[in-house]
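Teaching assistant's notes for section 4

Start the section by putting this record on the projector. Ask students to predict, before seeing the second block, whether protein-serine/threonine phosphatase will look compact or extended. Collect guesses on the board.
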Amino acid sequence: VLDDIIRRLTEVRLARPGKQVQLSEAEIKQLCTASRDIFLQQPNLLELEAPIKICGTFIHI
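Reveal the predicted structure now:
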């Protein structure tokens, strides 16, 4: 089911601008739950060697 949702979302990128994808509430919840699980598996601390450059905008820090 997730593969189908992802396929539908990526296919719309190849279509005309403004095309929408209809997802049910259950599909959105399933996608959010799967995404959350993936993010929770990722380390929240990275050990990096110096020197490093950080580029970007830091807002509300």
